[in-house]
Design brief:
The chain has 7 helices and 24 strands. By secondary structure, it is an alpha+beta fold. β12 and β13 form a beta hairpin. The longest helix has 21 residues. Strands 22-19-20-24-23 form a 5-stranded mixed sheet. It has a 3-stranded antiparallel sheet with strand order 3-4-5, with no helix packed on it. The chain is 18% helix and 30% strand.
Amino acid sequence: MARRMTLEGAKVLACVELMPYSGGLQRNIVQCLNDFNIPLYLSHTIIDIEEKNRVEGVTIAKVGEDRKPIPGSEIHFDCDTVLLSVGLIPENELTKTADIEIDPRTNGAFVYENMETSCGGIFACGNVVHVHDLVDFVTAESQKAGKSAADYVINGEQSKSNFISVKNSASIGYTVPQKIRKGANGAEIFFRVKKIFKNSEIVVCDGENQIAKFKREHMAPGEMEKINIPKVLLDKIKIKRNNSFGKGGLKMTELICITCPKGCHLKVDENNDYAVTGNSCPRGAEYGKNELKNPKRVVTSTVKTSSKEHPRCPVKTNGAIPKDKMFEAMKLLNGIVLNTPVSTGDIIIKNILGTGIDFVACKNIK
């Protein structure tokens, strides 16, 4: 934008960045700032904007490691325009609607090495997974997802029982993919570092065993990194335990308890027998463990009746049923007409899908 404004005739006085590094590509600093002699102030922030009917001036200041302005470091600019950059997040509305697992680190979908999501047959790519630097990466990722979708149609779904969970160290913000199927024909792993690194090594380990090592002269948060792990190295990684695509995909999963309106913030340690913390009652601990091992929900709905005065009757399950059976249960409910009279508590459908749970009436209708 600084370059575009300059080319359109504006005089850009400065670009100000709160962090001690640029959030963009290094080549963009050269092409968009250095080429036009636009100064970049790292570790600075705006502390005051002067205005009457419009902007008249801006004061910036340097910030310390706590990101708070340092007194005495102020710089003033006479200007009439301020442009704010607020960053990007993946477009995840459809992902949420489809009940696809989302990685809280990226706000995008969890994916396997072939770009398949936690929902079988749904593949994701591009900025719906994570924000990309280059359209080249988006194109390559979309081609991979397309080929994988075609393979799914032709050969069916691949097994998710044996997989490698990709974990990142504290100096790395996230990884994509988050899971790699055992037996995969190699994998590309994308990631971003949290700070600038020079003359560093990227080390891939299976526990204490080093699997691969990659050298990098420079890495920065604004530039996405990629490494390729060939099949011969993936095959050396041992599967420590079998699991399906877990909620969150991390050792510690955060949940909001829904057993009561209090909504406790739970943390569930999958590697410690699903130990739950953050709950204020035993029901919260039970919910946290079950939500990862066998999530269940109470279903509420309505059913058609033979009554003209009350054409529908509210119903609910008298217990929680497996979450993955909810839509099947609704199909059963939508296929019946309830003959009146009916009383609260009457069983409408007994033993739903072999769960031992019933649909019961929630209203008296004569």
